[in-house]
């Protein structure tokens, strides 16, 4: 296999993993299928676009056109996307979790509310900004590296490294912090966690903000490759959701494996001459359906069974 | 005492009650060919007037008649655009009712409903346009395609559950859309099949008579969907599935009592799919064309929003939601893009506040009101032997309630009479003439219930040794000894009993 293809696949897998892990963590700890993840993605992209647009003259005034300027711009972009994503998480917490988390049919209703939020947000963006694509500043530059005879674009390398870094940080937070322990306890057994004094409300807020920030990070990274538009969140949402399901909802490791699988699958389908880009979604869905029919609870489903 | 406010206990909602003649026999008309009655009349007994009354136990048929009748009566007087909107409402409502059957009755969370409609519509339209099949046969081709497509979709539903199946069906819809878009023959028209024949004559197309005919057809379609709903949900299949649903914790139980709920579920799915196929054929005929738009996520979400706003799993919810959303989406078209935002906000608002959509709001409000008024009653009532208002609604014999209330007030009065003087008077002379107060207290004690009534037991005949016992109140069960004290004087024993009763009175 061509190394360029591997890099492309890793690039896709990195973005998908950011979305899928967010959806998966949220589902297993709080019990919300977050359909507003796509809206979070789009809002973060727009927030980064507006903020960097506003900051550009300031940064140019302070640093000129040195490497520091690019660094500052990168910092502003990532920070604004992360903060916007976390704020979206807060909104979802206030609308889709807090009012109904102790009411009947919580899971279905949370799904419906987040779905409604997604539609409303996307339509508002469409109405306000129009359907035009907006390009974000390229924080990784335009160059490419020569590695082992293939060229790797800076944005691809940056995306893979950035996503891996963020993912590692998230997993470390889950593994080593006190709050992470509480979240993991909720993932294992929500009722048991409640009995041992872990507050659902107090745990849901950081989880929602964290997953929102993950979506924001995905938006910041993907905007290096493609443009930002109101509907740009839909495909990552559908992909993230399918990958989270493929990995077995609630299993972080399953989601990571599934993201890699789907990333490679898409890269390969896109590269095969007689299939091409138009069949990518088609092929992915057929693959996922096949896997689900064989393994009804996804790749990480085995964990689920042993837990029960 | 008179200034105390008495609150009403219980509630009787106003409803019309028939006063049937007691002499004539009861006659109820049945639906021809079945044993079902048209309306669910029930005879009840009125405790107050001691007469027979007739109430309508299920009023939904009336609401249905009123609502659908209003649609039929109003539509011919609307503008051409609005007739189109009402027609689309009827089609969407029909799809939603059938979808409700799948989601609510069968409990299969399928998102491929529109895919079934679309696939059947495409096959029927293709047969008509490319093979020259006459249009009435489309109503045969549509359901058949729906049935086959439904069977393919239903196959994995036994293995997958919930969200996994929803995802799979969403994937199927996407595959259908891409497949249609890839078809070489249709690329010229962007994947759409146009110039489909239909029950509306060519020269009437988009004219007023054509629109009215289209509306009539769509209305019949909606009635058909409701009939399918009634036949599936309220007859054997629906009943079986409701039993299985009631014991969702152990579906094994349903299986153990002989309910093959998997088969019932599949049957419901297949029947609905066939009916959806008919809707698909109608869709292609009514619009004269069919486009890949029907497979898109947006259309699916719009229909899902309808079901959610009306109430998931109820036919009336599906129709009401379709009415609201179609009106916002198609009727307020001059509003532009914000109307979708309005739909989404409706969806969010309804879901946050209502447990089961708009049609469930009434029951939810009643629950809420009952809870609140119960809390309020509990706050302002002290118990003291009286029936709590909550239990008062449960007690059938209302006389009992007033007796308990009287008893409580009597006891309150007697408690004030009991003084050390009174006890001293009784100690001095347990039998014989008493003061008015003591006589009243003793009279109350004598009237007490047999259960737990104190008696004096002479331990050996002709021997002055007594002890106090309490009667069990049950035939055959001996009295129990109250304490181990013995009395050698009968008057002492009388007084001890008196003291025990006074003690009980003061503690009650």
Give a brief description:
The complex is a heterodimer of chains A (308) and B (508). Chain A is mainly alpha-helical and 308 residues long. Chain A has 12 helices and 2 strands.
Report on the structure:
- The complex is a heterodimer of chains A (308) and B (508).
- Chain A is an all-alpha fold.
- Helices cover 74% and strands 3% of the residues of chain A.
- Chain A has one domain: ABC transporter involved in vitamin B12 uptake, BtuC.
- In chain A, strand 1 (144-147) and strand 2 form a beta hairpin.
- By secondary structure, chain B is mainly α.
- In chain B, the strands form two sheets. Chain B has a three-stranded antiparallel β-sheet with strand order 3-4-5, with helices on one face. In chain B, strands 1-2 form a two-stranded antiparallel sheet.
- In chain B, strand 3 and strand 4 form a beta hairpin.
- In chain B, helix 3 (113-131) runs antiparallel to helix 4 (138-154), helix 4 packs antiparallel against helix 9 and helix 6 runs antiparallel to helix 9 (261-287).
Which fold name corresponds to the CATH topology of chain A?
A: ABC transporter involved in vitamin B12 uptake, BtuC
Note the overall shape of chain A: globular
Give the percentage of residues in beta strands of chain B: under 5%
Largest interface by residue count? Answer: A-B, 39 and 36 residues
Main location (chain A): membrane
GO cellular component, one term (chain A): plasma membrane
Subcellular location (chain A): Cell membrane
Keywords (chain A): Amino-acid transport, Cell membrane, Membrane, Transmembrane, Transmembrane helix, Transport
């Amino acid at each position: 296999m061509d190394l360029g293809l591997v890099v492309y696949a890793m690039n896709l897998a990195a973005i998908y993993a950011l979305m899928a892990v967010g959806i998966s963590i949220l589902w297993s700890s709080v019990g919300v299928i977050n359909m507003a993840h796509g809206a979070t993605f789009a809002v973060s992209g727009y927030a980064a676009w507006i903020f960097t647009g506003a900051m550009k003259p300031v940064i140019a005034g302070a640093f000129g056109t040195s490497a520091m300027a690019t660094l500052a711009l990168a910092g502003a972009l990532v920070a604004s996307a992360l903060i916007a994503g976390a704020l979206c998480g807060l909104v979802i917490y206030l609308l889709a979790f807090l009012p109904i988390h102790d009411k009947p049919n919580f899971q279905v209703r949370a799904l419906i509310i987040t779905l409604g939020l997604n539609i409303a947000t996307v339509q508002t963006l469409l109405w306000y900004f129009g359907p035009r694509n907006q390009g974000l500043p390229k924080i990784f530059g335009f160059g490419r590296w020569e590695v082992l005879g293939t060229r790797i674009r800076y944005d691809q390398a940056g995306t893979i490294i950035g996503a891996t870094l963020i993912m590692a940080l998230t997993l470390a937070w889950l593994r080593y912090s006190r709050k992470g322990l509480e979240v993991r306890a909720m993932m294992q057994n929500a009722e048991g966690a409640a009995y041992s004094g872990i507050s659902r409300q107090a745990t849901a807020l950081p989880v929602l903000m964290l997953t929102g920030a993950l979506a924001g990070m995905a938006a910041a990274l993907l905007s290096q490759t493609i443009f930002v538009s109101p509907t740009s969140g839909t495909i990552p949402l559908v992909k993230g959701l399918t990958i989270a399901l493929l990995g077995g909802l609630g299993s972080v490791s399953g989601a990571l494996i599934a993201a890699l699988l789907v990333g490679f699958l898409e890269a390969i389908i896109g590269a095969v001459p007689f299939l091409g880009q138009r069949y990518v979604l088609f092929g992915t869905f057929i693959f996922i359906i096949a896997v689900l029919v064989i393994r009804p609870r996804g790749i990480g489903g085995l964990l689920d069974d042993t837990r029960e | 005492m008179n200034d105390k406010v008495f609150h009403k206990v219980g509630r009787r909602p106003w409803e019309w009650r028939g006063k049937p003649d007691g002499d004539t026999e009861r006659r109820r008309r049945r639906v021809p060919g079945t044993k079902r009655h048209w309306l669910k009349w029930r005879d009840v007994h009125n405790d107050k007037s001691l007469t027979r009354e007739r109430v309508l136990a299920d009023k939904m048929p009336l609401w249905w008649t009123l609502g659908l009748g209003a649609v039929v009566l109003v539509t011919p007087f609307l503008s051409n655009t609005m007739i189109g909107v009402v027609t689309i409402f009827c089609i969407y409502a029909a799809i939603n009712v059938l979808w409700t059957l799948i989601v609510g009755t069968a409990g299969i969370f399928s998102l491929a409903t529109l895919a079934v409609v679309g696939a059947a519509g495409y096959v029927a339209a293709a047969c008509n346009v490319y093979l020259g099949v006459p249009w009435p046969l489309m109503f045969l081709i549509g359901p058949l395609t729906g049935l086959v497509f439904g069977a393919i979709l239903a196959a994995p539903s036994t293995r997958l559950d919930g969200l996994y199946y929803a995802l799979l069906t969403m994937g199927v819809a996407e595959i259908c859309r891409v497949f249609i878009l890839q078809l070489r023959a249709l690329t010229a028209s962007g994947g759409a099949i146009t110039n489909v024949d239909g029950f509306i004559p060519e020269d009437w197309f988009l004219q007023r008579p054509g629109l009215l005919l289209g509306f009539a057809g769509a209305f019949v379609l909606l009635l058909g969907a409701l009939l399918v709903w009634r036949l599936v949900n309220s007859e054997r299949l629906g009943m079986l599935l409701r039993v299985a649903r009631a014991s969702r914790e152990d579906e094994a139980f349903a299986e153990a009592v002989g309910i093959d709920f998997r088969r019932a579920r599949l049957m419901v799915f297949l029947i609905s799919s066939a009916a959806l196929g008919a809707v698909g054929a109608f869709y292609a005929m009514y619009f004269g064309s069919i486009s890949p738009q029907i497979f898109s996520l947006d259309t699916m979400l719009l229909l899902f929003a309808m079901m959610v706003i009306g109430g998931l799993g109820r036919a009336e919810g599906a129709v009401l939601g379709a009415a609201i959303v179609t009106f916002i989406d198609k009727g307020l078209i001059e509003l532009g893009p914000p109307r979708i935002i309005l739909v989404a906000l409706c969806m969010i608002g309804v879901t946050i506040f209502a447990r089961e959509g708009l049609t469930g709001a009434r029951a939810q409000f009643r629950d809420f009101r009952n809870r609140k008024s119960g809390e309020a009653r509990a706050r302002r009532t002290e118990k003291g032997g009286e029936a709590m208002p909550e239990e008062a609604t449960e007690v059938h014999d209302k006389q009992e309630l007033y007796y308990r209330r009287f008893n409580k007030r009597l006891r309150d009065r007697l408690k004030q009479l009991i003084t050390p003087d009174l006890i001293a008077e009784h100690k001095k002379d347990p039998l014989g003439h008493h003061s008015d107060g003591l006589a009243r207290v003793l009279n109350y004690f004598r009237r007490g219930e047999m259960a737990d009534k104190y008696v004096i037991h002479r331990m050996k005949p002709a021997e002055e040794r007594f002890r106090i016992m309490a009667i069990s109140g049950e035939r055959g069960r001996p009295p129990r000894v109250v304490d181990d004290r013995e009395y050698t004087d009968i008057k002492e024993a009388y007084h001890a009993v008196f003291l025990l009763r006074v003690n009980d009175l003061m503690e009650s």
